[in-house]
């Protein structure tokens, strides 16, 4: 295996283009033959190098002439033909073993269904080809297979015909009218159930929609279908983008490394992101399905029609498409609550990544394994970068820029610079400095200083930015940071601003655009000291250092006109309190809970005017993931003490209130999927979780009753998770029951694994997880099983880093077991070691021992190696 790095600076435009390719698949139980016939044209002089891995070459022909062994060379990763004509027909026949393909990239089999996954570099496991996104080609495909076993034969584009071959086999013909890079190629062959619907586009074209799943499960696909139609409509309304084929197909597959894949006209999905009904799926599942279906649909323009020049540009499509799906979700549900959720996820995951050993820029400059680019930085921080562009130019300006982007680049393979230029030019903005967001890694820190000069009636806000060093980037240049802001008077009224440095975007939002390392904004004409509200809507992915007074924070929490900041202030207050309590715990002192914080929580609970979904967010305390970033030392036990003590105090002080909330909403419209009802359920289940922290038998009876009487999965899962994390006598029976009920359902049984892997009160969780890896329901070759049990455990900061156990050793064993079979899945587990530098010496030693042990394995994949190695430097 090659272990070298590749670099963006080495990019060269392709030496050959392919005008069209015809792929002919002959699928059998123990082998598959692929004939790829391409029309190739030379662009630059030189030899022809084709990518290919783990392939058996049967023959290679140029213009019909078979090449002899001395006319080409085969290495582990390439097929090289030193001498070819300027324009020719290339015909390559390869043989594959999809039935033995455990990496789940290229062509593989899942539960008897043939399917493909080509992003990022899986196509080279199907045939020798120019496996790079800037080679865009027209595809025609034929698939031949046994008719009884594989009645459904699918590929991209238009269904031309299906022929019965008479010998028990049949053959399907597909043609994709749009050019595409090979990572968007897809094929599915199997015995599948399907649901059908149609969508009429804004220009009156009728599109056939099909969602496929294992036989018998297709009725659980209606929510995905519904989500697809909503996405198609939204993209027309918001961006004027109309679907461009006659058919749109989604296929649900049980064994899938990632969430879903946007193959042109034929999306392949992890079945966990398609299958749902109220018995089997939680409110959160319904929401995720809606957003991922939308995400993959939106890729049709942002990713497929305009694609990537090279993989370093991955955020060009992923950041933009995440931004689009977040905006879609905001329009489908509640904009304020959606923003809170998106920022929570960004902070917990991406900020940690950006502060860890594998921090990288949104547009990276080097890598070992391209697959390792599918990170929260590329996706979620990438989305924040796009959001900042929209904030700077306003929504109208952003739409103008998007129109310009498609006008300039439809059908092309482009770069993040091209995108930034398309947005900035028509808006007459200069994004030269802004582009540093693409090149510099790390989360910038913005410190805020306020000063009120009563005599002059001036309020001074001084902002100073810095960015911590990250791997390969010891120092940084200043960023262009848009900070949305406002000033409030004593009564909570928004003041009009008199400051010549403020920009007002076309949406009427006030921005402090920080460009220098340090800048002061002077607000004039103020009779009294205003209260500053800054970083509204989380307008930039930064960490604020702002020593605002407690009074101001409480004031903003109650009065800010920006709902994001109201909740943000609650988090800030929670964090300040946690910091003290963690210190007390580390010093073995008694933990002191702050009365004012409790009283405020009581007031929030009592506030009838507050939207329940938002209230649920207000009541949430900062997560362990956030604590781990804020604290210099990851002291799992101290974190746990602080968090449970505070939760208990809130519950004890508000027992009656919490029970009232619970009773008010429990059992009301249990089958409804209205966003409003989701909010009610979120709030009442949160009330129940707080109450459960009291370890009061009466409460545990309520939890148990909710488990057994539940009429939807949200209620059932909430109750099961609470029981799983308790020593209640009801625990075993509920877990047993859940298993019996869902043991044959691969999607649902994962919830059972996660509930047990994420317990924090239960000290023996490592033993539980070990036992579960031996459970008949656990299959280590299934990515969902691995993620829901092992990755969930690795993200359980309290128990994964429990000093009384050695979870690291067990975890390393599992990584080493998975890595040879499926490097992508193994690599996704490695992030559990990102916090190593924050561990106390004894724990750090234990972790480093395991990392070194893994890295010492010579056959370790480059995927895992790249991520682990950095933790050692
Ligand atoms: N491109 C997919 C997405 O929409 C993610 C993916 C990456 C899927 C790699 C499979 C393999 O985000
Ligand atoms: Zn995507």
From TrEMBL:
Q: What is its EC number?
A: 3.4.11.2
Q: Which UniProt keywords apply?
A: Aminopeptidase, Hydrolase, Metal-binding, Metalloprotease, Protease, Zinc
Molecular function via GO = alanyl aminopeptidase activity; metallopeptidase activity; zinc ion binding
Which intervals hold domain Peptidase M1 alanyl aminopeptidase C-terminal?
Answer: 551-872
> Hey, which family's this protein in?
Belongs to the peptidase M1 family.
| Stretches assigned to the Aminopeptidase N-like N-terminal domain | 59-184
- Which enzyme type, at the first EC level? hydrolase
What organism does the UniProt record list as the source? Bdellovibrio bacteriovorus (strain ATCC 15356 / DSM 50701 / NCIMB 9529 / HD100)
Function, as annotated:
Aminopeptidase N is involved in the degradation of intracellular peptides generated by protein breakdown during normal growth as well as in response to nutrient starvation.
State the protein's name: Aminopeptidase N
Which reaction does this chain catalyze? Release of an N-terminal amino acid, Xaa-|-Yaa- from a peptide, amide or arylamide. Xaa is preferably Ala, but may be most amino acids including Pro (slow action). When a terminal hydrophobic residue is followed by a prolyl residue, the two may be released as an intact Xaa-Pro dipeptide
Top-level taxon: Bacteria
The Peptidase M1 membrane alanine aminopeptidase domain, residue ranges: 224-437
Q: Which InterPro entries match?
A: Aminopeptidase_N-like_N, Aminopeptidase_N-like_N_sf, PepN_Ig-like_sf, Peptidase_M1, Peptidase_M1_dom, Peptidase_M1_pepN, Peptidase_M1_pepN_C, Peptidase_M1_pepN_C_sf
The chain positions of domain Peptidase M1 alanyl aminopeptidase Ig-like fold read: 442-546
| UniProt cofactor(s) | Zn(2+)
Among the GO biological process terms of this entry, one is: proteolysis
